[in-house]
Amino acid sequence: MKRLFLLMSMLVVFSSSVFAQEQTAPAAEKVTFPMVAVPDDITEPQARARYLGEHFWDKVDFGTASEVLIEQGLIDMASIFPLLDGEALTASMTALSKRAEASRGALQRVLSMADKYLYGTDSPLYNESAYRNLLQVALVSKALSKAEKEPYQKQLIMLEMNNEGTPAVDFEMQLVDGSKATLADVESPVTILFLYGANNLDSKLQRFRLTQARLINYLQRAGGIKVVAVCVEGDKAAWEKFRADAPAEWVHVFDAEGKIKSENLYDLRTLPRLYLLDEQKTVLLKNTKADNIEQYLVQIIQASGDGAAAE
Predict the structure, then answer these.
(1) In the beta sheet, which residues pair with residue 167?
(2) How confident is the model at residue 30 (pLDDT cuts 50, 70, 90)?
(3) Domain map of the chain by residue range?
(4) Is the pTM here over 0.85, yes or no?
(5) 299: burial class by Cβ within 10 Å (0-12, 13-18, 19+)?
(6) How far apart are CA 310 and CA 15, in angstroms?
(7) Architecture of domain 172-310
(8) Lower CB density within 10 Å: C or N end of the chain?
(9) pLDDT of amino acid 16
(10) Residue 31 — very low, low, confident or very high, per pLDDT cuts 50/70/90?
(11) What pLDDT does 15 receive?
(12) In the predicted model, what is the mean pLDDT of residues 285-290?
């Protein structure tokens, strides 16, 4: 197991370095991030990952560190996030914030880079959980002024909404026949909430993937799942065209007044947004994709089968 973890770590550093070279500094500004060594007596993989997360920045002096070095470090650090559980991720972000706030202006630089890499809509390192944890710690720091905190406070409000394990925000919907309902009115063991833009290419691609997902379609025909497709961007003509290429059995909604966006009911920084909800409309998966929904459903079905077999 120790050898496996070391191999994974080597792969992480290699892939992160390649990404950093492509996305950040010119060749003349390449730097080597000073990695910490995990003590040999820590052998369990998750424990080693946690130690690395908490001590990742121990060798960095934020007072003298260049922008390139901090950027390289954040990119490398993001690559170990999948190895950290929730508690370890929080500890890791706390350690980063505390170390950065000791040097004037450093925490602001870290937040700016984290916004780009962890919350940027086009970033391959997008990680809401890590970014949310960092904001939760950083925004109580005295190292940031009120003005510096303000844009990040708005982001944190959105990040705290509709998280996995919490109730999805309810809203009123006008259906195709003119009648009105709410998200809570949709009766289904599982609901896929699909928030999209009618002229958005990624929304069209996700619509295609949803229509081609075999398990989703099977469960839909069996009455085990419903897709609530809500157009939050685009005119009515574009919505009708988009809807014509989607399954008729979907619950189709056009947010004519734009309330979901104007009232910040859901984070719509990028479209589409997919949520998987249970019968009580509790969020099971947030900002996910059709493939991830299918994998999640397969795991649920397998777990149910194993439980039935055990009985």
Answers:
(1) 282
(2) low
(3) 2-159, 172-310
(4) no
(5) exposed
(6) 42
(7) 3-Layer(aba) Sandwich (3.40)
(8) C
(9) 43
(10) confident
(11) 43
(12) 93
Alpha-carbon distance values, 280 to 148, 166, 169, 292 (Å): 39, 10, 12, 21
For 124-172, what is each residue's pLDDT tens digit? 998 999 999 999 999 999 999 999 999 999 999 999 999 999 999 999 9
Q: Which residue has the tokens 């070095």?
A: 69
d(CA 203, CA 173): 19
How many residues are there in the chain? 311
- CA 76 from centre of chain: 18
Residue 189: count other Cβ atoms within 10 Å of its Cβ.
12
User: Residue 235 has which token pair?
Assistant: 């005119």
**Residues 6+ positions from 243 with CB-CB distance below 8 Å:** 176, 229, 231, 252
Q: What's the chain's average pLDDT?
A: 88
**Type of residue at 209:** R
Question: Which residues does 298 contact at the CB level (< 8 Å), separation at least 6?
Answer: 215
Structure tokens at 49: 């990952």
Please say whether the beta carbons of 54 and 95 come within 8 A: yes
Whole-angstrom Cα distance, residue 227 to residue 209?
A: 13
Q: How far apart are CA 94 and CA 91, in angstroms?
A: 5
| Tokens found for residue 149 | 């905190």
Structure tokens at 12: 């992480």
253 in Cβ contact with 231 (< 8 Å): yes
